[in-house]
Amino acid sequence: MVIAAVPRLSIKDEDGERKNPVVFIGDDDGTTYMDSPQVMMTSADRVAERFKPWIHDTKATDFFVGLLTCMYALIITIGSVVVEVSPTWSETSSIDTTFYLYMYITGILFILYCYFFSIYPETYNNLIDLLNRARIIAYPKSWYATRIIRVGEGSGTLYLRLGAVLFGSVGCVLFGLELFLCLESSYCKRPETTILKWVCAIVFTFLQMHFIFCNSKVSLDNSRKIAKFGMMHLVSVNLWTWFRFVLAKQQAKVAKKHKRSIGYAHVAANYSKNSSGSSENFTFDDDLTNMTINAILNFNSTGDVQAPPTKPTYNGDIRSSIIANGRIFALDQFGDVATFLTTCLIEYSLISAAVMFVQWKSIGEEHVVKVSKRKSKMRIDCSSSSSGMFAGIMSLITTFVSMGMYTIFETLRNNSSAMMVFGVVDLLMFSTALIACIIGLWRVRKLQYRPHIRSEAIDEILLVMGVIGEIIYCSVGMDSFVAEKGIRNETGKILPAIVFCFRFAQVIFQAAFILILSRLRCISPYAMKNKPGKQIITFLLVTNVTLFIFQTYEGMKPTFGMSPNLSLTYTYIIYSVAPLLVFYRFHSSVCFAEIWKLTYSGKEISSGHATIPGLFAAIPYLRSPLPSLPVTPQTASSCHLHDTSDTNPLGLPLPFHSSFGSQMTMK
Hints:
Number of strands: 8
Number of domains: 3
Helix content: 55-70%
Strand order of the largest sheet: 1-3-4
Radius of gyration: 31 Å
Order of helices and strands: EEEEHHHHHHHHHHHHHHEHHEHHHHHEE
Structural class: mainly alpha
Strand content: under 5%
Mean pLDDT: 73
């Protein structure tokens, strides 16, 4: 038996009151019946339902539990921020370790609960049977766990979940390096608890990564209260991880910048002193090492970068201080590699937080089970894509060549030429992508508008977060350019200002292009034949992948366009939003890939429920035998069948005639 719900096909009387939704129940032989899913209520039942206390109302209690879980997540998130930035809590390693273990272990337990009690409850049910046979449990059926269903819509597209797997795997590598450094280093305080922390982080990251990729379509409705609490805890854990590693990354960059700015000046001063007859001799490496150590120590203790002492001081306990304050030791040992790993972990935390929030919202919602056969073959239409793909490949080749040029200039200590390479490539890429977005907006005007499906909400949330990061970055860059020009009182080079202007415009146009294009479908004969805009979408897809690679590499190097006299506040802001810049390019490519697959497929996409494309597709069902209450001429004349689907743009009421059959359900 196959059940297909049609919630958008409804019955209205002459007063416009909507009757019960229609459910079609079909047997394997093709016979179709119609009946109402709701049970008629007596007047007493309706009065009791109306005056029922809210504590006994399922929807009210679900809302209240959701409210409490939101408050819990808010408190935990704010508390995690305090733990990370407060010097008092950082110095008390036991409190920091306790909070660390609570966050990760609770998340691990919830994911395991979902696996063993909701997704794969067979093991638990077998244990209940074993206890029943041992006469420990008398009524095993009351203890059984029900396996949850998988709904048609998931939390995120396939490409987004693949990105979560990629970034999560790289994040596990970073945790593994931290674990290795703790095992091999004698400076690791309390190695047992530190090792336990990193092991919990690896286990949690891997389990959550598997949950996101393999179980994004599950509906945790069999234990809503626990599920809502657990999902909000996962949101808090991911936000805390995101903030923790953003803070660690920005502190490492500030220390590196401080070393670069004061190291050479201090070495020059020592060299001048030694050349005039001083007996104190310091090598170049010794001075740079001591400047870095003192800068990091001063930054960790006060939250600000202090000037170094006149004479370098050696401190052999630098590593233990960093570990005790929760810093990431791998950033000091592995350089740019650890910076890349940290960036990937930040992206993973951002994706996971958004996915878990969408999962939390879906708990308790009504889902319609869509029965369909799994396709054994996947067909991809690559027509009208070759020109855009090869144009994007040209930009990819240009980007890799520029990265090689930058490496050569950096090796030759020609920093101005290296920065010029970054500036020219940025201007070329952003201007080309901006022109492509404008042309694409013009080309897709022939497509048809359709409401987007609910699963795309997570894409829009992540896209807006990336746009916010880009806007903040461009605004700080423009303000830095204006301030630097005022300080120097000269015209100066305007390339950074031009790059920031083009970047800002391209981000805005591309976000608008993605948001409107996700609601367009290729349905008309003209659109199906010509596929307007598909070449542009293909080009922008490859271009955003290219920008993702280039900006990941660029983030490991000195920031282009930012003044060396940038205030410390602006420096923190730049380093905080830098992961969002890389994430925006990655997620834009995800959105374009999903648009490329769905917009030009010619399929009608339902907006949250299993529907039929229109009234005329429902006529064969209405002509089938429909055993139900007979309809008198009086009741039939006062009822109309409304097709509320998108294929009836006029929304005209269609009266029931004899051609539809002489029976229908009336309540």
